[in-house]
Amino acid sequence: MAKQKPASRAAARPAAQKKSPARKASAKSSSRKPLKAKARAMPVAKPRRAKQRIAISHYRDQDFAPNGLRAYAHYRDLGIAGATDGLAQAHVIRLIGPCNPAEVSKLHFHDIEFQMVYVLKGWVKTYLEGQGETLMKEGSCWTQPPRIKHLILDYSDNCELLEVILPAEFKTVELAT
Asked: Which end of the chain has fewer surrounding CB within 10 Å, N or C?
């Protein structure tokens, strides 16, 4: 005996799954209400400080320079500060090995709104207030909340980090240990 195909998808559903006209109407109207409520609750976007432009930075070894915050690091600016009118900065940090713990292990914090670090090469051992010592390896990423006390404890000879900070200009405060 051959099976008959149902006339429609609705006919193929069991009776419990079929929607009555009243059920369809209530489902339709209730699904619209949360969307309208969400749209009203959305915050208004803050005006941007200045028009942003495109920044493109290609890897060149000669772009690493000892012109940053730390003497044991060379920095490659990625052009983000200029492109965002100071909204953010991004750079690749090449830590110069071998690590000298007396030089790098200085507890400090940055007066920033946002900071993110991503390990591109090698590894770095850090201390973050409230987190303790953590070994960050290639591919590791972390954020540092505003004014969190931290320091570097050790790093590999080939360590490179990508760092993104908001705003581009900020104050660093070294603390007595």
From this structure: N
